[in-house]
């Protein structure tokens, strides 16, 4: 597997993208299309929030046959809680894109992000879709068009050899707040020129990749109404279709999981107001599920996040989060380490120099290690620190 420098969603063969500033947002790019030049298989995972945006319902409908060729995405308006008009607007976005590309509306997936409870400004959308020009190198700009409170675009791509053919996987993600996924997350789009045996197998690959990446990040504990992750595979690489259970399948899964993990980590690293990425590694849990519960609890704790922001090595907050996580925890056995400094060993408080421990919390990435000594379960979760800027951003989001 090779990482592609400045890779994007259009790094795979047969994909093109185009973006425009349509006026949905007050300024900047806010609308893009990503499309395959040939029929493709597709899969998606979506929010588990019972309040779902219109594009989520439409994507599920259009993915029923496991096929898709294009995605149209807007930022600045979530098209959520917009009732029948919202569905009509999402359908029109798909139809306009299909007409532009010369494909059927059912081959177009729709995603939206932004303010909830506001109708889509369809005049802007119509003129925007008409103005978009797609290009094979349009991926990097598309990664900017999907941003809301993000401070930077987020994209990754890798290539690998599958039975003598070079296969590429590229993706982009947006998200900086309202992040606590339990499905996929936020908005993320991944394309590959690999040929795979079926849409069902493609979805299995996606779910597996998402489970240890997007389902293990948190910023603020809020699961969005619009969370959508879409994967399109068009077979343009020319490889023989990857079959499940083969060496080729294992290599493809590893590459897809790597792209998903890199995109996922980029989200809390750019969390609203965040100054630090927090990586929590739990080992020695009773089982994998317990490890995941424990890691997510620590990464999502407002007290831990605040302590990280202030470089305060308050390990009691870590132990507290472990205790309410739902995982089996014996406080007489647990170890806690922040960076290179052990703060608790076998349930015993360890002597440490506070300034040395604080220094472990001062860098751009903070590592928290917890060994529960109860089994072989292990998991990693990612979060960020909690700062005054997070409150400021969200106190003024619609004003």
Using the alpha-carbon principal axes, give the shape.
globular
The side-by-side strand order for the widest beta sheet comes to 1-7-8-9-10-4
Q: Provide the number of structural domains.
A: 2
Describe the largest sheet.
6 strands, mixed
CATH superfamily of the largest domain: L-amino peptidase D-ALA esterase/amidase
Structural class assignment: alpha+beta
Instruction: Report the uncertain regions.
Output: none
Rg, nearest Å:
22 Å
How helical, in percent, are the residues?
25-40%
Blueprint of the fold:
Elements: E1 2-3, E2 15-20, E3 31-36, E4 41-46, H1 54-62, E5 70-77, H2 83-101, E6 108-115, H3 122-131, H4 139-145, E7 154-162, E8 165-174, E9 187-192, H5 199-211, E10 228-233, H6 247-269, E11 277-285, H7 288-300, H8 302-309, H9 315-324, E12 335-338, E13 341-345, E14 348-349, H10 354-359, E15 365-371, E16 377-384, H11 388-395
Parallel strand pairs: 5-6, 9-10, 11-15
Antiparallel strand pairs: 1-7, 2-3, 3-5, 4-10, 7-8, 8-9, 11-16, 12-13, 12-15, 13-14
Helix pairs in contact: 1-2, 2-3, 5-6, 7-9
What would you note in describing this structure?
With 399 residues, this protein is an alpha+beta fold. The protein has two domains: 2-269, L-amino peptidase D-ALA esterase/amidase (4-Layer Sandwich), CATH 3.60.70; 277-395, ArgJ beta chain, C-terminal domain (Ubiquitin-like (UB roll)). Helix content is 32%, strand content 26%. It is built from eleven helices and 16 strands. Strands 1-7-8-9-10-4 form a six-stranded mixed β-sheet, with helices on both faces. Strands 14-13-12-15-11-16 form a six-stranded mixed β-sheet. Helix 1 (54-62) packs across helix 2, helix 5 (199-211) packs across helix 6 and helix 7 (288-300) crosses helix 9. The longest helix has 23 residues, at 247-269. The mean pLDDT is 93.
